[in-house]
Amino acid sequence: MGIKALIEKRNALIDEQNAILDKVESEVRGLTSDEEARFNEIDAEIESIDKSIKKLEERAKNSDKEENKIIEEEEGRGIVMDKEKELRGVEQYLRKQPGEELRAMNYSANGHLVPEYLHNELIEKMDEVAPLFSMIPLLTPVSGTLRIARETNLGTAGFVGEGTALSPNDFVTDTVELKQHRAGSAIVLSQKLINDAGIDIVSYSNDLLFRRLGYALDRAVITGEGEDTIEGLVNAPSECLVEPTAAGTLSIDDLMKVASSMKAVYQSGAVWIMNRTNFQALSMMKDRNGHFYIVREKEVDERIAYKLFGLEIYINDAAENIYLVNFAHAYKGMVKKEVGIKLIDSDNTNALAGTATLVLDAYVDAKIVQPEAIRVLTLNA
Description:
Elements: H1 3-26, H2 33-95, H3 100-103, H4 116-129, H5 131-134, E1 138-139, E2 146-153, E3 172-178, E4 181-190, H6 191-195, H7 201-223, E5 241-242, H8 252-261, H9 264-267, E6 271-274, H10 276-283, E7 294-298, E8 304-308, E9 311-315, E10 322-325, H11 327-330, E11 331-335, E12 340-344, H12 348-353, E13 355-368, E14 374-377
Parallel strand pairs: 1-11, 5-14, 6-9
Antiparallel strand pairs: 2-3, 4-13, 6-10, 7-8, 8-9, 10-14, 11-13, 12-13
Helix pairs in contact: 1-2, 4-7
């Protein structure tokens, strides 16, 4: 018997019990021995039905979990198979071998091959190849630009008398527009390397291209250099600047001033960014008890991390100043879904040299949306 039939039977038994009680109440008397026996029998039947319903519900729940697990496994296998097909398609593209996988691949309007896995792999590798850019909350539009609201004045609140209306005053916002800036990476490969069947040319190329693109993205996050590029930390407004006690001199007191000038809500999750020269100078500084200010720690994933005042340090030689940034609040960014790859080997330069140029194209942007989550110690001011 199914759950529905059991519930219907249970309701019928409850109706029978209610009928017995109604009869006794209308006749203003107690239960007869027969009525009491039947009432107890119904109680026992209802208890038995409840146990049966519970067992069936648990069985159905476990069955749903198993079914969902099977579906997830099948979907996972489908994703893996799709990626494997795309990888074979990219390999056929690079080696100029015809194949079913290559014919099924998508191309952008400018002729770039657009494998789906490239975008996902780029996002996954961000932590490794572009640790600063990876901390920015990233959106993934398919096309066009994105406008994001930014608070420029939170407004005020206060106590008012009973019956007095609250006024939603001074709340001001503007918008930040995320555009599609082309970020590219290119490598030159010999035809011998491409045609060598013993080399995984796709993995080799992806690794080099991703790492180069990652270094460029992290450098742009700091410097904002290049044509039509993202907004760098050097573009942070003047309210973010902290002047050193002595120009051109690095002191631990100035770094304490930087940390204390950032609101507590932004300090949690903030990171230091500095070049190696400044890092080496700070690594030698000690407090009065002889303890180093910079602490070396081993993270959960066995990665070595250096921290100052409990906040992690990232070393990037593009940083002329020292930055304290909470990227989760300070920035918003995007990486367009259409990450493409193109092989160029028919031009004169590559043809004469027997080489091929492989180009990776991605369209990204990042903008500062909360200056209060950025502090800049202007050492070279």
